[in-house]
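## retry 2 of 3
previous attempt timed out at serialization; input unchanged, resubmitting
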Amino acid sequence: MHLVVVYRAACISVVTTEQSKHLTNANEHNWVNLKIIMTESNDRKEEKLSKRWVQDTLISDDPEWPLFEIYENYETRQSKIGNETVLYSVNLPSNLLSSLIDGSAPSANFKYTDLINSIKVASSEEACCWVQINEPDNVLAIVEDVWAHTWDEYYSQDHQLEALLTNPAPEGGCSFMCLVPTSRSWVLVHELNPENDFTISIHANENFSDDVLAKLGVSAVADVRIEGANLSS
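## retry succeeded, writing output
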């Protein structure tokens, strides 16, 4: 039997080799649990910060119409965050199932997972949160949900799309799903309005948008690249 000396503060204990292995495994397990707790704590902190940033920056402070407002000027679609680049824009039929059958809804020229992965590479896997905003009856914007995004391909690559359909704005309002990074230097926006217009766009500086497009291998589907402010704080 081999004996191992274990130092614990000012105390010295003598344990067997087998007991030492158990202590090592227990310490590794505790360290893994600690890292998980720290990660979850950081995620919750960033979720709160992202929610506050959206409320302060992307929701109008107009007391009568506190709506989602990512544009400095809605008519010219001048974005608050760099430029807007539209990736996909379509008017969906009222019956989504029928559109799958008859092909009436045109498909994008890219796969959605490829879009997320292109942003993953362009942003160097920057920490992000998904923020869902609904506008009940289009009278006020409410942050419905916030959750930390993971770049792991196994998780949540299209959960945000499902949330747009399963948790829409009541009474025919607009719904928005935004991917918000910690830098606040770009935002990926999904918009679904009462007329069934669905749009995916990136609001960012031109270099970032061009990098995403290049990695995706596509061009913007609409000429909606309007120069605006670079709002990153």
